[in-house]
Amino acid sequence: MMKRVATLAAVVFLGVVVQIALVIADTQDSPYKAVAEFSTAYFKIDPAMSNRLCNEIMESNHINPVEDYVWSKKEEARLRGFNLGYLKSKLAHVVVNIEQKDNNSATAELKATRKFPIRSFFTGETYEVHEELELIKEDGKWKVCGNPFGLVS
Hints:
Blueprint: H1 2-27, H2 31-43, H3 55-60, H4 65-79, E1 90-102, E2 105-115, H5 117-123, E3 126-138, E4 141-145
Antiparallel strand pairs: 1-2, 2-3, 3-4
């Protein structure tokens, strides 16, 4: 009986230690996390993508590229007779390869399958996504630079 209690206590203790380690790892910023957050927000047409764009993109134009992108998608949906939700998509089978140049810059290759939840339910249509993203570290946080997915016009 005592051996079972000790084994159970050891398993619970190990579970708590692993959980703490995973929480700490999740709070750490990385190029992979920046790519995942930006890409997810981009395809969901979520203005939160601006949190992962470098200052160079956000300050280089007189027009906010994120606001312009969201507005153009809303307009595209309206012209097609739908609401914005029709154009939102999600990524599946995501593979990200990171090549870190130094402590403050990296390049990421994103490969994924893009699905439109509403349409793919009926048709099963998917699209391949393949994009190279430039990343830099600004103010201690990894951000996407360059012209990701043709966002900057």
